[in-house]
Amino acid sequence: xxxxxxxxxxxxxxxxxxxxxxxxxxxxxxxxxxxxxxxxxxxxxxxxxxxxxxxxxxxxxxxxxxxxxxxxxxxxxxxxxxxxxxxxxxxxxxxxxxxxxxxxxxxxxxxxxxxxxxxxxxxxxxxxxxxxxxxxxxxxxxxxxxxxxxxxxxxxxxxxxxxxxxxxxxxxxxxxxxxxxxxxxxxxxxxxxxxxxxxxxxxxxxxxxxxxxxxxxxxxxxxxxxxxxxxxxxxxxxxxxxxxxxxxxxxxxxxxxxxxxxxxxxxxxxxxxxxxxxxxxxxxxxxxxxxxxxxxxxxxxxxxxxxxxxxxxxxxxxxxxxxxxxxxxxxxxxxxxxxxxxxxxxxxxxxxxxxxxxxxxxxxxxxxxxxxxxxxxxxxxxxxxxxxxxxxxxxxxxxxxxxxxxxxxxxxxxxxxxxxxxxxxxxxxxxxxxxxxxxxxxxxxxxxxxxxxxxxxxxxxxxxxxxxxxxxxxxxxxxxxxxxxxxxxxxxxxxxxxxxxxxxxxxxxxxxxxxxxxxxxxxxxxxxxxxxxxxxxxxxxxxxxxxxxxxxxxxxxxxxxxxxxxxxxxxxxxxxxxxxxxxxxxxxxxxxxxxxxxxxxxxxxxxxxxxxxxxxxxxxxxxxxxxxxxxxxxxxxxxxxxxxxxx
Length: 647
Ligand SMILES: [Zn+2]
Fold this sequence. Notes:
By secondary structure, the chain is an alpha+beta fold. Helix 3 packs across helix 6 and helix 6 packs across helix 10.
């Protein structure tokens, strides 16, 4: 759909046509009350004191410092709380980088006004505004990571990523979509930038954006870089869609016609899937760097996609390439359609993550499927990835088969904060992504079986995410809405079907049978799996489904499967394998030992190092090497191939 048509749709639906999104009053935000603390409960009224102005000087590349200056209109003589956003949408946890904020000075009429950090909330600053002061001048620095485990690196000599939630405070007590802002940035000389924000004007290297509410400002980060390309990948029917690419060096921006064609296909295939776009323009902010930290963070009209420097130069359909399709899918699933308890009134109210198996699980499903439909990945690559996912839930998540549910893993962003775990396979971690993908695959298979292939998850996608073309407010939903939509497409007890998978301990790999396929283990990786691994620079040895371990090239164990053969022999992920049956460790030696032990009763002897102690452990395993592979179930309909076929 063209931009002009989009405006017409907005007029027809009574929404305001401007750079500012739909009127806030129409949005059903979750009125969760704060429990304890001193902060005022956010109200669904327009911020009455004026427009919040935020300026960021992002030119100090040497020190990796963002210098912030804000003007916050306030009521004279009244206390105000300024909040540092805590729950950042898409991050799913309440741990924004307040530790990187320093140098906070607040002034009114030129005089310093003391601030006090709230005793219940370290991201809230109380300011007793003196009489006669109607505006606060707020200055602080965002000291971005210098590396060394301080968090993601967001500034290099060649590029920077600026999330407005990192570089602004906002007044408490109001829905963030009711606080109007004007944001501006000063960038290094000659740098270009990408953002979903609309430009009002530029003065040299300082760029000022059109007014936008604070909720959508935070949802519209800015990427800037020295080496920058802007690719137009819009389809005939879509609003403008661009890929803004930044790289460490010009040579990484070698974008060939086949790359552009596949990226354009993504927009075409998404349109065929949903039949509607929920943005007036969209920008992929794609950075290719060995220096910046990688990322994948969705927004309504943009996404942050940070990947390897050789993304284009090593491009091949035989490697995994679903980052962009995953993040793009969130514009429909997660941003436009949002779980009711996920749509909070501000960024400092707790978010209910319990429907992340829809938000991330179905996005994992479509991100992978669309990558194949668009030609970013070959079908064989897509199937190899699916085999790996199915095997994980067949054998390598013993915790989910015993003590833990997929539903409970929606708490993991808060529990583990995306830090490494001692025994991830037993603990489970954010399995709502990939287990969610398998649950939606089972829904697709069940829809096809019940309807004799007349209905599929494509129908659900269109019905649930594709309504109201052009609208880009927030359209909330509950589990009952999902169940009702599935029931309209194909009558069935969908609630029981979903809850059994979410709350039980069933083998989610079994859902493949509904698509006419099953999982088998073979004694060498499939050709597609090998081709995919060839792109993995960190590649070590993966014997997850045989010995039950993964190790780096020098024998350091990355993972030991709970109650697997290696675990039972006494191995732990803290150890390093030094020798195998008396021979110095390498991957081939270990694989040969597994082959040699097949079918006899000779244990595999591993000399392992644990701190400065050495010990020989005997692994009693005789079933040979095993790698996952998808195999057709003879005599059944092949629905899976239809799922991955381009529309
Ligand atoms: Zn996601």
